[in-house]
Amino acid sequence: MINLGKAHAWKAIYQSWYSKAIYRDAVHRWRGLGFRFLFAELFVMWLITAIHVHAVSAQFIDGYLLPMVDDMPKMAFKDGKLLIDKPDHYQIKDPKTGKVIVNFDMSDKPVLPSVPEKGIFVEPSRIVFRGKDKEDVYEFSEHSSEMKASLPDWNFGSKVLQIVKNGAGVAVVGVFWLSSFVFCAFQVVILGLVGKAMAIIAKRRLTYPQLVRIAVVAMTPSLIIDTCQKLFCFGIPVWSLVSGIITLIYLAYGVKVNTVGFEWSLSQGIPEEPLVKNLTP
């Protein structure tokens, strides 16, 4: 366990970048393996990410997907033909650009637009999917039994989108927080062994729990950069390699700035509590 009241472990969030004191605190004043701090640190980072994901997904769903779903007509099959509850010539447009995405032509003699025009073209007997260099035609007559059973319920689609919008942030925290903690805990356990080799080379009397705590602090800058990449939508090339190098540099720095005398407890790496005599008569 980390003594948060005395050691002020939360300062490692920013002091891990530059401060010798926080790496010495991790050795001399923290307890255990530092997992409590790692657990809390990852929660804060994923909470910030979850808020961002919620804001972005809500903007996309409310501003793009829901308007399109709400504009979609109700559909039904009759005598092998598709029917809609809208005019024969009906279009679904991109709410942001105004570009036509789905074009309904339910007249007796539908006319397919010229080849350069891309999009989805719905006719009474077929759907044409047209991309840049490809055109696919889905004939209803060849899939009549499937179509009757798979006509979309757009009201249900709207409800699903609302659930996704409201639950995206919660899902991010619930899934990625715990899984990232397990992954990072495994990493710092391995880094503790690497730190042990560094300590031997540097002739530092540091125990394995102390070195794991140093590794937890050393990992913090990489975790912050990783969170910033998620928030600002950018990616550093070969980030896994770069983050590993950053962590190893800070691990070596944490080992270097720590000297532990023989009087420190080798089991926990903390000063032994002085004996206090009972002066009460």
Key traits:
281 residues; alpha+beta; 2 domains; 5-stranded mixed sheet; two-stranded antiparallel ribbon; 7 strands; elongated; disordered N terminus; disordered C terminus
What does this molecule look like?
The strands form 2 sheets. The protein has a 5-stranded mixed beta sheet with strand order 3-4-5-6-7, with no helix packed on it. It has a two-stranded antiparallel ribbon with strand order 1-2. 54% of the residues lie in helices and 12% in strands. The protein starts with a helix and ends in a 25-residue tail after the last helix. The longest helix has 49 residues. The chain has 2 domains: 146 residues, no CATH class; 78 residues, no CATH class. The chain is α+β, with helices and mostly antiparallel strands and 281 residues long. It contains 8 helices and 7 strands, in the order ααααβββββββαααα. Helix 6 packs parallel to helix 8.
